[in-house]
Design a protein that fits this description.
Length: 184
């Protein structure tokens, strides 16, 4: 019986290790995508301004693609901001309340947040279906491509939210994070 328990523990550890590596790789990919979208957006807006004011020529597609890049960047960067704890939160009660109550509040807060994300993802799938018959005004690309940023970005945000909720469950008062910050 003990041998099977060790095998299960070893199996779970290997799954967690694999999940950690996949998540780390996904974070690197998303970070580079956000950097790429931001850089592209900045260059296209600058080209549009230079074209319009120096050469009296408007580059129609530059504004449209910069808008699409901004949309993708925003939805992907929301997950990165969740990872870095950059979203607004109220943590005044963290130091005052006991751990069991903090864990209860974590669940109370998590349920509506995850429900909202799920509803937004489901709603975006309908939008993607509409985007299959709709094209963008200038480039005439199918609108499902920019609309795809919604479920992918919200899904990534949801993943980072779940990971932060697990971390908050393990350490409700955030003492491990504080210790880590002081050591750095």
């Amino acid at each position: 019986m003990n041998l099977q328990g060790n095998q299960v523990t070893s199996y779970l550890d290997s799954i967690l290790t694999l999940a950690s590596r996949v998540t780390s790789g996904l974070r690197v990919l998303v970070t580079w995508l956000v950097i790429g979208f931001f850089g592209y957006m900045a260059v296209m807006v600058l080209a549009q301004v230079i074209g319009r004011y120096l050469f009296n020529y408007s580059i129609d597609w530059a504004a449209e693609t910069a808008t699409f890049a901004q949309i993708w960047m925003i939805f992907l960067a929301a997950g990165l901001a969740m990872r870095q704890k950059l979203h607004v939160s109220v943590d005044a009660l963290t130091n005052v309340l006991p751990v069991p109550i903090l864990r209860f509040f974590t669940i109370i807060i998590a349920v509506p947040c995850l429900w909202f994300l799920w509803q937004a993802i489901v709603g975006s799938l309908t939008l993607i279906n509409v985007g299959q018959i709709q094209t963008s005004p200038v480039l005439q690309i199918p609108m499902w491509i920019p609309y795809l940023s919604l479920p992918l970005g919200l899904g990534y945000f949801g993943l980072e939210l779940v990971l932060s909720l697990v971390a908050k469950w393990k350490d409700p008062k955030g003492t491990a994070a504080e210790t880590e910050k002081l050591a750095a």
